[in-house]
Amino acid sequence: MMQVFHLKVARAGQLNPAVVDMHARIAFRVDRDALAEIFSEEVKWREVGLSFELVAEVEGDNLERAFSATNHIDSDWSGNPGVQVKTTASRRSTSVGDLVMRDGTTFVVDKFGFSEIQRPMPIEPEDEPETAELPRC
User: Fold this and answer.
1) Of 29, 68, 83, 85, whose CB has the highest number of CB atoms within 10 Å?
2) Rama region for 68: left / alpha / beta (φ>0; ψ in -120 to 50; rest)
3) Average pLDDT over every residue of 64-73
4) Nearest CA to 39 among 71, 1, 7, 66?
5) 2, 102 in Cβ contact below 8 A?
6) Distances 88 to 55, 56, 59, 91 between C-alpha atoms, Å
7) Is residue 130 situated within a structural domain?
8) CA distances for 112 relative to 64, 67, 72, angstroms
């Protein structure tokens, strides 16, 4: 079983410029060594609010299968066989910068194929909805 995590591109309905920057750095970098540098900036990412959300679990161990099973091709990917949806948020296709975890190893969806990340990435749960405190009688 593989887990697919999408980079959260918006917070409170607004596009996060830091996410756009990270996506561009992954997609347009010149060499693979730069990938380690990009993914080593966890503290900076947390400060600007970057995170990943678990969106699906996909049967099997083929990374290409996880990618294709979580892409809208002829229809919404949530109906694809062997896919368990793990989000209530609106779905998008898996793309460059998203993550796939297989057997405890994390891979980033790269320009062509996948690249292994040498350490776990920060994966944060959705924020809990705020609840108003009731007045005491």
Assistant:
1) 83
2) alpha
3) 96
4) 7
5) yes
6) 8, 11, 20, 8
7) no
8) 11, 12, 19
The tokens of 35 are what? 């990938």
**High-pLDDT (> 90) share of the chain, %:** 37
pLDDT at 30: 63
Q: In one letter, which amino acid is 57?
A: E
Q: Position 46: which residue type? A: R
**Band (32; pLDDT cuts 50, 70, 90):** low
In what helix (H) or strand (E) does residue 3 lie, and over which residues does it extend? strand 2-7
In sequence order, the 6+-apart residues with CB closer than 8 A to the CB of 47 are none
**Residue 6 in domain:** yes
Helix, strand, coil shares of the chain, percent, nearest 5, are 25, 25, 50
Please state the domain count of the chain.
Answer: 1
